[in-house]
Design a protein that fits this description.
mainly alpha
Length: about 190
């Protein structure tokens, strides 16, 4: 992470994000039917892309914003590049692990299967935490505080986006109904 702070390049961000989305799609395809939660035939490509990209984007935006409030040293570029590199354990190990262990293990051994996936997730979360600590040059305690506030900021962002979406739909529906009344009943 220290090297990414000074030598990280923007080009890595789209490459790693595209790889993470591809790994998500490959994982859906290669997961055994016993362990799958999404049928490959019923997969919505946009939804699956959003499952990878939306949490990442909101983490970058909220993490950078909160860290700036707490006088973090990192730039938006540093946060975006380091956050993209934090996805590397998922990119390198998720599809292979899922393809291998979901076909070898039975449903009775699902604890082993989910334990491995949990290890990959914990490794990624640790990298996100290290990114926060190293890029912004925070102490351990301040990193924990900023990380918790960043997660809260992510939730607030999602709620605000959902609220804006719902209010916009209500506003559009209102104008459509007024237009319908105007056309059918006249001025």
């Amino acid at each position: 992470m220290w090297e990414l702070k000074y030598d990280g390049q923007w080009i890595a961000v789209p490459i790693l994000l595209v790889l993470a989305v591809c790994i998500r799609l490959i994982t859906i395809e290669v997961t055994s039917y016993e362990f799958t939660t999404v049928e490959p035939a019923d997969t919505n490509l946009i939804l699956e892309m959003a499952k990878v990209l939306v949490p990442w984007v909101t983490w970058v935006v909220a993490g950078y914003g909160v860290a700036s409030i707490f006088y973090g040293e990192g730039t938006f570029k540093n946060v975006a590049v380091a956050s993209a590199y934090a996805l590397v354990p998922y990119i390198l190990f998720e599809a292979e692990y899922t393809a291998l262990f979901s076909h070898i293990l039975s449903l009775d051994e699902k604890v082993i299967y989910y334990f491995g996936q949990t290890l990959i997730t914990v490794w990624m979360l640790l990298l996100f935490f290290m990114q926060l600590k190293v890029i912004h040059d925070f102490s351990l305690g301040k990193s924990i505080l900023v990380g918790a506030v960043s997660v809260l900021g992510m939730i607030v962002l999602w709620v605000l986006i959902a609220l804006t979406y719902l209010l916009t739909l209500q506003l559009i529906q209102f104008f459509v109904e007024v237009g319908y009344e105007f056309v059918t009943r006249g001025p």
